[in-house]
Write a structure and sequence with these properties.
alpha+beta; 5-stranded antiparallel beta sheet; 4-stranded antiparallel beta sheet
Length: 467
């Protein structure tokens, strides 16, 4: 029954207000209790989300240290980048090298001597044009009525099946007497090096005649502008010949990009070393993430003055066993010694990473630099060996963050609790409507009876007064 907001006509009572107050008085305490439980569950759910996020950030910071990639960062330099540029990857061989560039790799380029006076539409005889590379690859072009013009021959060469080594193009230039313009076919190897050099032979079959014989495109009639050539270098006196000017297999992990020949007895000096600054940055990222996690754990578990955990100053996870476990495990696995470390360094403290009484971690860069110089592998082992700090922490974090783990299980349970509380709240609201409707019905009936009594009283009063 809908509630009409009006004053009782018989009694003069505000039935709407009275019914609402009575129904609220009966159901509000239960709603308040449900909301308190829901607020507590929501706060804990939010706290677990915050903890999980901080743990994930910490996990990201330790991953580079766990797999050792942070300790594979390298620096590389060339004493003359106009002649040689170098890059070093994670597995580069460190050291100083002397390199001379005797010869650069070049791609063969040839121009057909025949002049096509009719331009790109000049006709050719039908027949076969054969291409072969020093590598052994080859392909043939059948020239017939579908492609016996210069431009169609160019396209046929570029699109031919099996063509992995030559590109065709056309240039429009002066003729030999500089009295007009002619077109010429240009053939260029797709790759540098002698293995990509090519030869051409043309044979007419006489089926279709044209202005130009295919034999005029054979090797004997090609003007070699650039011969195929390999790169030749000498590194610390040892000669290496390669087909490309980008060489990746002479120094492990180092790419040599040749740009120009060096002068006689004037080598380029190459330096490849460990990038200590990058390593320090990775460890600093670890320190920052640790302090963020430590601060988060403290805030989530802090006591703000209420023994039941409901005080506004309390952390969302005060008294939570998972939070205590996280704090204990992170601290123990960070500060403990590393049994699998080689050399003289077997803890974070020994390489410059320390934790003060307040639990704040810091890095002594000078101490780290000294440790790296003294025993690089030992420093790496502190983090990435089988019992390394990052290895141990990664195992703990994986367990904490995995699906079905302690945090995930609590989140699932809390979500179910909140859902049930919402259902209970809906049930109480339905009960409120029912109580309100029942009370309204009773008060309307009362108001009607009072109205009848008043009407009867008025009638009797008027009747007596009329006697």
């Amino acid at each position: 029954m809908s509630i009409v907001s009006s004053t009782g006509l018989g009694s003069g009572i505000d039935i709407q207000s009275l019914v609402t107050q009575l129904a609220t008085a009966e159901t509000q305490p239960q709603l308040n209790a449900i909301q308190r439980h829901r607020d507590t569950a929501s706060a804990r759910l939010s706290g677990l989300g915050t903890l999980k996020s901080a743990l994930s950030d910490f996990q990201t910071a330790i991953n580079a240290l766990k797999d050792g990639s942070a300790f594979r960062a390298h620096t590389s330099s060339s004493s003359d980048e106009s002649k040689l540029k170098i890059t070093a990857d994670a597995y580069a061989a460190t050291g100083t090298y002397s390199l001379e560039i005797t010869q650069l790799a070049k791609a063969k380029k040839a121009v057909a001597n025949v002049e096509f006076t009719g331009g790109v539409t000049s006709a050719l005889n039908s027949g076969t044009l054969s291409f072969s590379a020093a590598s052994g690859d080859s392909f043939d072009i059948t020239v017939d009525s579908s492609n016996n013009t210069l431009e169609k021959l160019r396209d046929a060469i570029n699109k031919a099946d099996g063509n992995t080594f030559v590109s065709a193009s056309i240039v429009n230039v002066d003729n030999a007497t500089h009295t007009g313009t002619v077109s010429k076919l240009v053939l260029t190897a797709k790759n540098t090096g002698t293995a990509s050099g090519f030869t051409v032979s043309g044979t007419d079959d006489g089926t279709i005649g044209g202005n130009v014989s295919l034999s005029q495109l054979s090797d004997a009639n090609l003007d070699i502008k650039t011969p195929a050539q390999d790169a030749v270098i000498s590194i610390d006196g040892q000669v290496a010949t390669r087909s490309s000017n980008s060489i990746t297999d002479v120094l492990p992990g180092v790419t040599l990009n040749l740009a120009a020949q060096t002068e006689v007895n004037t080598p380029v000096t190459i330096n490849v070393g460990i990038d200590n600054d990058a390593i320090a940055n990775s460890i600093n990222a670890f320190v920052t993430a640790y302090n963020k996690l430590n601060s988060t754990v403290k805030n989530l578990g802090k006591y703000g003055g209420s023994t039941d955990g409901s005080g506004s100053g309390n952390g969302a996870l005060i008294g939570d066993s998972t939070l205590r476990y996280v704090a204990t495990q992170i601290r123990q696995n960070t500060t403990g010694t590393v049994s699998s470390a080689s050399g003289n360094f077997n803890s974070l403290a020994m390489i410059g990473v320390s934790i003060d009484k307040a639990g704040v971690m810091s890095l002594d860069s000078a101490k780290l630099k000294t440790a790296l110089a003294a025993n690089f592998q030992s420093v790496s082992d502190v983090f990435s060996s089988t019992d390394g700090v990052a290895t141990r922490l990664a195992g703990k974090l994986s367990g904490l963050l995995q699906s079905g783990g302690s945090i995930d299980s609590q989140q699932t349970s809390l979500n179910k609790t909140i859902s049930k509380l919402d259902d209970q709240k809906d049930d109480v609201n339905v009960r409120f409507q029912r109580v309100q409707a029942a009370l309204q019905k009773q008060f309307i009936a009362m108001d009607s009876a009072v109205g009848q009594f008043k009407s009867t009283g008025s009638f009797l009063t008027n009747w007596i007064n009329s006697l």
